[in-house]
Amino acid sequence: MWAEFKGFLLKTNALALAIGVIIGGALGTVVNSLVNDIIMPPIGQALGRVDFSQLKIVLQAAAGEAPEVAIRYGAFINSIIAFLVIALVVWRISQMFLKEAPAAPAAPSKTCPYCMQSNAVDASKCMHCASAI
């Protein structure tokens, strides 16, 4: 059973997918820190000392045991920026590592003089119009 599972991991892309998920999770925490700790403070400073993580619309203030109910759109803005940074990094990494396979050379062919369609070199009749070539 272990050999079969090992074969599955090595034959399929399951191992590559697992590695990608682990690296993606680590990249997500790094990018969240980048956005929240490095990118957003200067942007907030430039926009009049705004702390984006604290921007919210209070729907109901906290009263006694009831917590505050608010729409935290500042945290949403931070999440959107983090997503855009992650998407840019993943796109760039995919460009660097996922190269297209070179196109296979076209098989030699000859053109039918009547219908101008391509046929195999050793063909004696055109497969499109049935003319002798």
Structure description:
By secondary structure, the protein is mainly α. The chain has two domains: 2-97, Orthogonal Bundle (Non-ribosomal Peptide Synthetase Peptidyl Carrier Protein, Chain A), CATH 1.10.1200.120; 106-133. It contains three helices and four strands; from the N terminus they run ααββαββ. It has helices spanning 2-11, 14-46, 73-97; strands at 57-60, 69-71, 109-111, 118-120. The strands form two sheets. The protein has a two-stranded antiparallel ribbon with strand order 1-2. Strand 3 and strand 4 form a beta hairpin. Helix 2 crosses helix 3. The two termini are 59 Å apart.
**CATH architecture grouping of the largest domain:** Orthogonal Bundle
Strand order of the largest sheet: 1-2
- What would you call the shape? elongated
Can you give the helix content as a percent range? 40-55%
Number of separate strands:
4
Percent of residues in β-strands:
5-15%
What is the CATH topology classification name of the largest domain? Non-ribosomal Peptide Synthetase Peptidyl Carrier Protein, Chain A
Order of helices and strands: HHEEHEE
User: Major beta sheet, specifics?
Assistant: 2 strands, antiparallel
- Cα separation of the termini: 59 Å
Q: On the 0-100 scale, what is the average pLDDT? A: 85
Number of domains: 2
